[in-house]
Backbone:
């Protein structure tokens, strides 16, 4: 299958391209400036263009069966420039989607975030839950979701929205902007500082998923195109919700094994008297498709530590 993936120089896009190309797919890897990964073979064609000028993609969409839109404005940049976040995550997504429809692309997968549900995730949340988060990161992604779901409802293209929980993992691009992510940051701290430090008590509950699992789920959806038509909105999350401190301790444990030395963990106790509600992020659509999400976090953490040792030691 010929697949176009945006955000090739980013954490998610790069890993998705790496995974799907190894599965034998022909990939058009779109990035503003990234030249590509050494591991990518002739099945990957790197195209350096600005997708905000989506009409330029017309020349590269010929014969493409699937577009995976993994490019997006992150949390920090969304706060700094909400207008640009809305433009890129919303308007640019709409333009890319329209170009895909014009070029008779069969399917469009938009990578979104579970944080569209709420600024403070709690209780039971599933694909039927309301989206109430007014943070520009969430609202801009919701705009991208809406244009994707509308095109799907109009039968113009098979549009799928994939809402990810907190994903983490090693990048294939050394310049990928991924060290603001909690687990990525903790692994970097372990290697570069020899210690771990949280900016809170760590008692908050979070849901974490590996990028390897994200890639496996996308591969599953690629192969289950017909069966997944009924599920245009999909949560991708772990079955288990854990506290930040529990995750930090897991990173600490793996870092001590990997680095063969003691790694102290420091937290702030200013939130010790607060009550942090638990929550459950359900994956009803994937359950209906009989897809089981893996909870193996250790392998990804180990690979991330290995990457950090090579880059930051």
Residues:
């Amino acid at each position: 299958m010929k697949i176009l993936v945006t955000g090739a120089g980013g954490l998610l896009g790069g890993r998705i391209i790496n995974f799907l190309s190894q599965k034998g797919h022909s990939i058009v890897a779109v990035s503003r400036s990234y030249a590509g990964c050494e591991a990518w073979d002739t099945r990957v064609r790197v195209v350096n263009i600005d997708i905000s000028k989506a009409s330029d993609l017309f020349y590269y969409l010929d014969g493409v069966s699937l577009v995976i839109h993994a490019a997006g404005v992150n949390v920090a940049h969304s706060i700094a420039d909400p207008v640009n976040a809305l433009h890129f995550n919303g308007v640019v997504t709409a333009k890319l989607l329209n170009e895909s429809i014009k070029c008779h692309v069969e399917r469009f997968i938009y990578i979104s975030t579970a944080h569209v549900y709420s600024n403070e995730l709690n209780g039971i949340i599933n694909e039927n839950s309301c989206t109430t988060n007014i943070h520009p990161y969430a609202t801009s992604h919701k705009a991208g979701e809406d244009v994707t779901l509308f095109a799907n409802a109009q039968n113009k293209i098979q549009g799928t929205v994939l809402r990810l929980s907190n994903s983490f993992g090693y990048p294939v691009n050394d310049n990928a902007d991924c060290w603001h992510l909690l687990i990525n940051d903790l692994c970097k701290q372990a290697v570069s500082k020899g210690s771990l430090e949280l900016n809170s008590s760590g008692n908050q509950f979070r849901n974490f998923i590996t990028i390897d699992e994200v890639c496996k789920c996308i591969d599953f959806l690629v192969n289950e195109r017909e069966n997944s038509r009924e599920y245009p909105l999909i949560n991708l999350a772990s079955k288990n919700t854990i506290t930040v401190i529990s995750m930090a301790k897991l990173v600490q444990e793996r870092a001590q094994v990997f680095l063969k030395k003691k790694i102290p963990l420091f937290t702030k106790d200013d939130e010790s008297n607060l009550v942090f509600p638990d929550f459950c992020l359900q994956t009803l659509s994937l359950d209906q498709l009989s897809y089981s999400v893996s909870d193996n976090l250790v392998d990804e953490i180990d690979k991330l530590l290995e990457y950090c040792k090579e880059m930051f030691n």
Q: What stands out?
A: Residues 190 and 196 are 6 Å apart (CA to CA).
